[in-house]
Structures are given as C-alpha cells and as structure tokens.
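thoughts on both lines:
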Amino acid sequence: MPVYRFTDRDGDKLAISSAPNNPNTVHIARTCGVLMPADELPKFVAKLYEAAGQPAPIILDRPSPEALREWISGGEVDAYTDLRWHSPQAARERAAHLAAAADLIEAEKTNKAVSDLAVLLVGAAQLPKYAAETLARAVLSAGYAKAAE
C-alpha cells in the first residue's frame, strides 16, 4: 500500500502505511499533533484498515433517533417495510437506518440494565447515584448479567 499522508492547516503531518516486516500491522507516524476535520475521518479510518490488510468498514451517516422510531417494533428492527429495489444511495440510507435502529435498541437495553442495577446498588450499598451508575456500567461491561428468571 502506498503511504497515505494527511497534512493539517498548520503543516503537521500524519502518515499511514503498512508496517514493513509485520503483516496485518499498521504504521502511523506524525510530526506532532495533527488536527483532522471530521469529514476526513472516514477516509482516514479506511486507510488504517487498508494498511492493516483488512477490508475497509462501510461507514454510513447515522440517522437521528427520532427518524428510527418507525423502524423499531417491540425491541426488534422492522426490515420488511417498503421491500423493493433501491438505488445505491437509497440502499445505503436503508442500511444506515437498519444498523442505527439495532444500535438504538441495544443501547436502550443497556441503559435499562444499568439503571436497574444502579437502583439495587443505591439501595443495598447506599452508594450515591452517580457512583452506582458508574459501578453498574463497569459490572455489565465486564460481562455480568442478571440471571434469567
């Protein structure tokens, strides 16, 4: 892979390339701190994957949560609405809605689990709410879950 170089408005550089003698490894070099505009991030991330010998992820614009509500029913994503052939752009928009709706469902489940566990910690351990939420999030992210009833 040729070296991908990004130079910010101050002249600071960031270079991404495959690491010599290390397959599937990325080499990132910089002159000093680099300011990268947000619209450059998808290309930057794609180049990181390319340098590591991996296919670039598909990066789509995320729809707002309000736009996703019609895609969600009972904790599931409705993928069957409006089945028809789509233009490439419409297909990407549909894919973004499906993925973002799935993320929203999982986030809401996680937030409920954190909230439920935090309530128990506040009551049982008499922790302040912020400490209970922080501990609950750490416990759940470590893989602990409520036993099935």
